[in-house]
Task: structure prediction
Amino acid sequence: MKEMKLFLGPQHPGMHGNASVHIYVDGDIIKKSFLLPGMLHRGFEKGMERHSWVNNISLIPRVCVVEPDTNEMAFAMAVEMLAKLEVPERAHWIRMIILELARLSIHLMAYGGLGSPTGLYTMMYHAHTDRNTILNIFEKITGHRVYHQYIVPGGVRKDLPVGIEKDIHSFLDDLESRYEEYRDLGINNPTIQARINDTIPLPAEVVWELGVTGIGMRSAVNKPYDLRKVKPYARYDQVEFDVPVAPYSDAYARVDCKLQEVVQSIGIIRQCLAKMPEGDVRVPISRGQAMRWTVPKGHVYACVESSRGEFGYFMVSDGGTNPYRVGVRGASYPQGLLGIEKYLPGTRLDDAALWVDTMGVCSPEIDR
Amino acid sequence: MTVELLILVALASGILAYFVGRLNKVLGAVVTIVASMFIFIMIGYMMQDINAGTTFNYNAVEYMPDFVTFMVTYLGLFFAILVTFIFAMVSFFNPFFVEKYKYPALYSMLYLFSLAGVLGVFLTDNFMVLFFFFEFIVWSGLFLIPLGKNNKAAISYYAFSTAGSFALLYAIFIMFAQTGSYNLHLGLATVSGTTEGTYVLALLAFAAFAKLGAFPLNVWLPRALGKAPDAITAVFSGGLEKLGAFVAVLALVKLAPIGDIAGTLGGLTEATFLFASQYIVATLGAMTIVFGTLMAIRQDDAKKLLAYSSMSNGGYILVALSLGGTLGLSGGLYHIVAHALASAAAFLAIGAVSRVTGTTKMSELGGMIHKMPVTYMVYLIAIISMAGIPPMGGFISKWLIFQAVIDNGLILIAVAVFFGSIGSFLYVFRPLAALFLGQELPQHRDKAKEAPFFMLLPMLILSGLIVFTGVMPNIFLDFINDVIAELGGTGLLLGDYTITGVNGVLQPTLIASVFGVGVLIAFIIFILLKKSKKVGLMDTYTAGNFIYTEELMHYSLDFYAPLERLYEKHINITKDFYKKLENKVVDFGRMIKYFFFTNKPEITVFWIIVLIGFLLWGEL
Amino acid sequence: MIDILLMILTGIGVALFGFVLQTSIAGVNRKVVARVQKRYGPKWYQEFLDIFKLLSKRSVTHGWIFDFGVIMALGGIIGTAMFMPLTSSFMAFDGYDNFFIFVYLIAVGMLGMAMSASGSGNPLASIGVMRALTTMLAYEVPFMIVVLTIIKITGTSSLSEIGLFQQVAGNSWFFIALPIGGIVAVMALMGMLGKKPFETYIAPAEIASGPMVEYGGKQLGMLFIMHEITVFIEVSLFVHLFLGGAENIVLFIVKYFVVYTALNIISSVYGRFKIDQVVLFFYKWPLIMAITQAFIAIYLGWVI
Amino acid sequence: MTNSMSNTEFVTNLVESKFKVLSTEVLDKYQVSFEVKKEDVHSLLSLLKTSGWIQLSYLSAVDWPNDNEFELVYIVFNWDKAVHIQIRCRLDRETASMNSILPIFPGCKYYEREAHEFFGIKFPGNPDHEKQLILEEWDDIPPLRKDFDPRAYSDRKFSKMEYKNDFVNKNGEVSKQDARTKRYDDIDKLRTGGKK
Amino acid sequence: MLSTKFSPMSKEEVDRKWWEIGDFFRRNSLWMLMYCTGCCAIELPPAMTSAYDMERLGMGPMATPRQADVLLVTGYLSLKTLRRLIYTYEQMSEPKYIVGFGSCTINGGIYHDSHAVINQLNKYIPVDVFVAGCMPNTEAVMNGFVDLMDLIKNKKANGWKDYHERYEWYLANQKAALGEVRVHDEFHE
Result:
């Protein structure tokens, strides 16, 4: 059998991020495929061992570029578990606002990113425009557009600025009013449906084999397996939201779930803004000398629900000023490496980019 | 020189070639070159003798005046010149290929024998002579095809050809019963318009279909052409297949069409003027086009691909001839010329590649252009003509055929014709991309080199003619007008450089020169700009990855996979049908064997007695 | 002899006009599409800048066929454009603006480009060519059937005469006279121009811009020129066949602009089909519609 | 999740009743940690998988050079019971080798490969585990070991930016900042129509 | 190119004039290569889309290196990426420019002591414009592009010429850091 080898990435319009999918095709059917990771390897886990607990705050958002806040949250949760820190009530709510805004941002980006493999660039432009508004809101809250370093162990770095509620509300209203337009432009569009209906399905029985979590899993097993519901962190147990599920995980179902999560996130942010109490936003972790702050011995695994699934930090402390070992469970590790190797063969060349997009393969968190 | 003498020369030189070939293989093949060139030139001279309107009648054997006669007609001469030319051109390949055959001397002999057969078929007005030489060609072919070491293909070819021959024979019997003479023109004229004419038409059409490999009698063509020796495929596709076209002309033009459906459709404005028989043949021709195109797109073997393309082009000829009229006839006849030249050139080019690489499978080849640029250009010109793109001959004929189709308002047949026309881009491009272009594969990089001069010569002559038929078609169309006049139709309206169709005027010379001007402008733009840096073929865009294996960067297998997937389940109907038929025949044979030829001799004897008794029933 | 030279010069003028017209309109259209996408958009002459920049760059070549194909592509397209009538009475070669010349001579350009792309040795380019040819197989047949209807009705295949036929009082534009066929022709035109959803052969996210994958510098610039002229030919074909030709050049430009802009706006809100979906799409409704239209118009004589 | 506390108890009982656990920690109501012997890992993971811990969340290693040991960590999760379980075991550092858990959790393939790449632990049973995954042409000891110094490696291989001490513009060229200022002035000029 | 017979200018002068004209086109139609080498690429979509609309400047994304003019090195470069970046850069058609994004390309930035990330990009390939910041704001990105256009106008964007002239030096640096520049990357087989 004679095959041809094609590459999707690293320098390819169909690949988001810096990774390479090697594809062996026969005609246009993929016979064998694998991901070549490591192009974004920066030695994070080693780097974190070499920095103090507080220094690491500036390092961790850079683990995953598109969604830095879940990193910060997972890191903060892990450190809080180790150090037994009690986070102030208001900080929890602020964290939720930040996390959900980030979720909105990445869902919009992924939804716009769907425009790239399917050729609907208009959707990409619209979605990125809205995402830019979220980045502007982040800039107002945290001072940074992308890497916020806002959620820190012990709370959040500072309180919300005055009047930000108005900005957030106006953005949410705007987004909500155009939600149907987004659906019509995107997944209700007959040409897009022709592309994503029944494309690269992920059968329910193989989800556990791969270890896929997040939307990819929920849309396959049809159960609300969301860490925010199953083991609520922050104050997710005090807000009301639904977890969108689907019985059959094709590209359409995954995108559809993403869009439904957008609605839920809007609802969560609204509830947070309404329920948020006044008070402190941070417990001081140490008096002065933050760089020499030590954390008790221990080994914990803290995880949050990112847009792509379970994002976890395994952290070992030997009681010193630096973490002894930090292990990062990238949310897209299973679908990126094993998923591409096992479930891309048999599909078509045209759809390879759709797997990367709809399963949310994020190379920085695979490589670290 | 008279026809019978030419035939004798062909036969004699065939025998000579055999004996010379026994001594020296290559020398025997050289004899074929000399003989076929000689015959072609003689036939060419014959064209000067012929005067418009009159035919020369050589009564060869004086004492049997009506049994063996030869006659030169415009129609016959048209075909004879074309086919002998193809024979002469292909014969240049023989010395380079005889080494590969099991029986080189036999090959040389049969090559000239089939040439003799061709002369006999085309230059006669006698049915028996026609049938005799028809069979002669079939038998030569039967022994020529297995020289490519595949007996099954030969059997397949023989089965269909024999079926065609029998149909021809029955048609002859019917006409003989009507007229009592073997005269072809008389016979056709007599049965024309009668009930017998229907049978004759059907039988002749069957013979033509079998010979052209048209749907549904197409199975042998790709098999035989795919497996036959490389030079023979060119002869078959360019020359011998045209026997079918000749029979089709006899059947469709000389016989009055049957079944006036214009009357039944009279209520519709501008209804078609076709007759049922014409419509049926045209529909089958259209199916041949579609089927051949779809099959050609799927093939991996370049020779098989071209074989299916021959089939598809045979469909064009059938459609054009069945539509009749000035445009249809001239389009069909011109298409015969254009396709004969183009397919011979293409087959020769593929043959030249096959000679150095030993394979014609596109998945095993690639980048031959870097070693065989001239062969590539020949192939390119051939496929441009085959796809019907100006300024090559194929465009003129397709333009005429399109007009005939549009003029008759045949929508469904137009779908097939247009489909075949666009589809031909697809399949002719595939060998171009996979075989000549793409990555240069390491296994052929060292072995491959350009074909020797005497192989290039016929290819270049053919490509020159292909261009010439596209740029100056009027010279050929003049002769075709004579043929049409002889057949009783009106010729095309030709100007100095223009061809006038029903709905438009074409000036091929202008098109060619404007195209030349365009290329000139593009060339000036190109040459004025900075010179490009030459980089290797493997220095291509790989999304930043490193790759060193040429095979993995060469797209040749399953070229049209997405398209093929749409119809691959439905395409094998005829093949399956014949497969089933074959199984049935085999079963029947087994049954007979089981009943009659068991290992108990007494049962066999018993059955023989029963059979004899049955046969003698009436007598006793 | 001198008049032939004059004719050829006029033809070159027509091709040049087509290039300038289409390039300007393409630039304007980039702005229009940018507005659909909530952007400001580039300058209207951005396309010129792009093309001349490409011509000014240094490039690489993968062998003589790589260059030869480009020259053949551009030459074939320029040659085709030289036959194009601008208005129904003004053209370079009077009487020879046969529809079939455009359909088939344009194929020389396509073939040249396909050849050159395959000659680069990049499989993505070959895949792109494969898709382009398959798309061609898809859209061409319905389109030809509709044109067959028009030729059968008008009795001529000359573009200008078809245009004049529609301008005669009592005859409406074929876009209106053959409404079903008009819709088919719009779809086919979108396929011809490679507009979404039929943009399969460029498909950057799948095959990294397909046939163009190995071009840079002057080769790419020449292919851009070729593309602009190709668009000019195809849109002009539509204008002449379906929109009643053009009495004068202003009308021609207006019709041209409207057609091209409308197609761009339509295509900007569609995604891209897969290649087999394109074939299935065209061989389903457009083909049935085209045959129906032809039957109605030719056999029943119902022409509005 | 009102009964999550009982979930951790359920886990503790389940594991401790069947295996000899070196140490058990209940980290919070969603997480339990067990340290077991190397030999017990496979059967423990099989047991957990049949009891509903079907998702392998994470697999990695920790280097303890002082004890001359590697610590392997398996984290599994049960979505219905909402309990993460850490299973840790110690391996000898010199001959670090652990049978692959590929038959139990196929998802471990790349985690194990990565652990081999970064720590040098062998995983017999995982077919491709010795091939490089993330790194390319690596020429040193596995980088996540404690005795690997990335800074020294970086200094050795990658040249650093050299900062000059004086930043005086000697060539008399227009500095970038000046050019920018000039450009802004030009823009202002354009805006005001040349009037200052 | 042009005959000097009809022109009073010398050939060099003519070439220079043509080059200046070419520079005008080149700086007004900068096509960037879509190569997201690092995290700074996340600020490119806002720069491309409605908020800043790069296309106003004539910039647009291009699929393959042959077509592109500008290589945007968006952030840190691991060794694996650097190999592919060099290969991609060498495939681009000249004149070609490089814009380095973020502190990581200047001095290694936050990853200065990492075992996998190089520290100074212009040791390996010539960089025309650096945009500082971790990560640079979209405004800074746009400003970097405008700077590049200015450089082209002033004929200072000569990185690609430098790469030709000092190729040995660059190659030596590449070899020192990477070992083998071109590798077989079929590690899964």
Summary: The CA atoms of residues 85 and 94 of chain C lie 8 Å apart. Strands of chain C lie at 60-61.
